[in-house]
Amino acid sequence: MVLNQLEELASKASEELGKVSDSKELEAWRVRFLGRKSNLTQILRSLASLPLEERRAVGARANEIKLTLETSLEEKKRELEEGSVVSLGMVSLDVTLPGKPFNLGRLHLTTQVLEEVCGILGGMGFQVAEGPDVEWDYYNFEALNMPADHPARDMFATLWIDYEKESGIRPMLLRTHTSPVQIRVMEKSRPPIRIIAPGRVYRYEATDATHEWMFHQVEGLAVDKNITMADLKGTLFEFARCLFGKDRKCRFRCDYFPFVEPGVEVAIDCFECGGTGCRLCGNSGWIEILGAGMVHPDVLRRVNIDPDVYSGFAFGIGVERIPLLRYGIDDIRLFYANDLRFLSQF
Ligand code: FA5
Known about the structure:
Elements: H1 2-19, H2 23-34, H3 39-45, H4 52-83, E1 85-88, E2 91-94, H5 109-123, E3 127-128, E4 134-136, H6 137-140, E5 159-161, E6 172-174, H7 180-188, E7 193-202, E8 214-224, H8 229-244, E9 250-255, E10 260-269, E11 286-295, H9 297-302, E12 311-318, H10 321-327, H11 340-343
Parallel strand pairs: 3-7
Antiparallel strand pairs: 1-2, 4-6, 5-6, 7-8, 8-12, 9-10, 10-11, 11-12
């Protein structure tokens, strides 16, 4: 009788085990067939009350079944665990583990703005030109109406390379602005010219919230017949409108650069104080973003372009000042401090 009961129990247990598909179900199966209140345990506990002969037979078979069920339980457990583990040769990969966060790289804020600036000016018909970061004194100063000892050189605190006047070595420097590219382009091509030159520039100056010793400029140059100040103003106002929107105030006023006549500077109202004056804008209410003007006739003459026939305008935009104004960044030095907490916001 009891032996029949045991056989039924064994076959039921193995049938039910076949249906188990996860660890929760497996635990329920264990409790049902091997737990303290299971029929098998009850039978084992009641062995003492059976006649000796039957006790031996039932005891042996019950223990045999118990062992089989325990082995099957272990096998099933392993089988379920292996189901969630993918084997890759020697390496095991648990696909149920949470994934590691994957940091996507991105373009530096300056690169993003450079691309945007070049996109806007490219849309107006300007083509990209390039020049070297390590430049001759001639292109950075002399050809731009700043011969040796010209006081305007002081406007561009310079990092010199191999500068030994007496040795006869031609003085080299890290370019202090992108304007030398104007000369390089005009030496090689004839009007009509319409180029922009994006790139790094370097100045030997103390840094503060709006001044870095290395920053970026985008130079612009247009030379053709009948180019006037109105063309310059129209181009720069449209550029500022595209970048900052029509509601931002834009100031256009006289400035001095030896290589243009007349010279102007363009400033945007300070984002921090709204124009009332603060630490960031040096209490002026404005942040200057570019210098510009009509190309000086002597500069045109030097590259064999007749100023009686042709005229031109040029501008030099300070790239970092744009995101400074747009995103309300209160210190330009954050750009190149390599702090991902800052950079990954853009
Ligand atoms: C120049 O560099 C002239 N080459 C611009 C120019 C080009 C005038 C063509 C006329 C014709 P300036 O030194 O003002 O000018 O610099 C131009 C812009 O660069 C400034 O308006 C400002 O936005 C930015 N800039 C200047 N110095 C720094 C600095 N230290 N850090 C960050 N941006 C600067």
